[in-house]
Write a structure and sequence with these properties.
Blueprint: H1 2-30, H2 39-51, H3 55-74, H4 76-99, H5 107-126, H6 135-145, H7 151-170, H8 173-195, E1 200-206, H9 210-221, E2 226-231, E3 238-246, H10 251-261, E4 266-272
Antiparallel strand pairs: 1-3, 1-4, 2-3
Helix pairs in contact: 1-4, 1-5, 2-3, 2-7, 3-4, 5-8, 6-7, 7-8, 9-10
Length: about 280
């Protein structure tokens, strides 16, 4: 029970810190300079420009139908943390809009700094197994019907649609070009924080519930798993050990899966300096 509360509080700290950085990026750098961050937040900044509607509230309202669809398609495990993180981020967006100054900068500087902070904020939230909703949920839904298209390409396409929409509404083609700079900076920071320089983790799990854990890792997280036959040195008992190579942001999810099936699972997490192969660096 205490461990569950500790993990929840840790999640909250990450969501608040990540959400605060995200809100600063949108309020101070992007919205003030009419640069669209893409996705649902980009749509919210357009509504703010047209109708003076609060950005944070619009982000959450637009996400509500997406949350419902995601719950029906993917189950509560994925959606609970995302709803919580999105609610916190939405609230912080409106608080920052009321309290922080809107700085008019050189648009390249605004795009670079806004994108950098945006990527950092999203990454901190994703490190605890949540997302800020919006584009990622839509991309997951599209991926069900079009599995041959990568998630990255789907998300990029959806962001691009919002950026073009913003350029038309702002009546400024430069807005779209600076938004591309923002999205590029955001993606690079996310890669650096979440994946490192092609680094990752290798997780070893010893449990009596091996098959259940393997099934959920394959289907919920989408990572390949290797099982290794083992024998205990002291007991002499035979069993199997799971070996899984992961991105840094997926380690928490895998540990949660293992503990869900076996609270006594023995888990070893190792650093992987560089990972070559399918799903990682070619």
């Amino acid at each position: 029970m205490k461990k569950g509360i500790k993990e929840f509080l840790k999640d909250m700290v990450y969501y608040i810190v990540g959400g605060s950085i995200y809100a600063i990026a949108v309020t101070v750098f992007l919205s003030a300079n009419r640069i669209s961050p893409g996705g649902v937040t980009g749509v919210a900044t357009i509504l703010n420009y047209l109708f003076n509607l609060p950005i944070g509230a619009m982000v959450f309202i637009i996400n509500v139908p997406l949350f419902i669809i995601a719950f029906l398609k993917f189950g509560k495990g994925f959606i609970i943390k995302t709803v919580l993180a999105t609610a916190i981020t939405s609230g912080l967006l409106d608080i920052s809009d009321a309290l922080l100054p809107k700085i008019e900068l050189d648009l390249i500087l605004a795009g670079v700094f806004g994108g950098t902070l945006l990527g950092l904020g999203i990454s901190i939230i994703m490190l605890r197994g949540a997302t800020t909703g919006g584009v990622e949920i839509v991309a997951k839904l599209f991926a069900i019907k079009y599995p041959f298209i990568s998630m990255g390409r789907l998300m990029l396409f959806l962001d691009f649609v919002v950026v073009i929409m913003a350029a038309l509404i702002y009546k400024n083609i430069q807005s779209a070009l600076y938004s591309i700079i923002t999205l590029y900076a955001c993606s690079k920071i996310m890669d650096l924080v979440l994946y490192g320089a092609d680094k990752g983790k290798v997780v070893y799990i010893i449990s009596e519930k091996t098959q259940d854990i393997v099934y959920d890792i394959l289907n919920e997280i989408g990572r390949g798993v290797t099982t290794i036959d083992i024998r205990g040195g002291y007991t002499g008992n035979r069993g199997s050990m799971i070996m899984c190579t992961l991105r840094i942001n997926q380690v928490h999810e895998v540990c949660q899966v293992a503990k869900r099936h076996d609270k006594g699972a023995f888990i070893v997490i190792c650093e992987a300096g560089e990972i070559l192969g399918e799903g990682f660096k070619k």
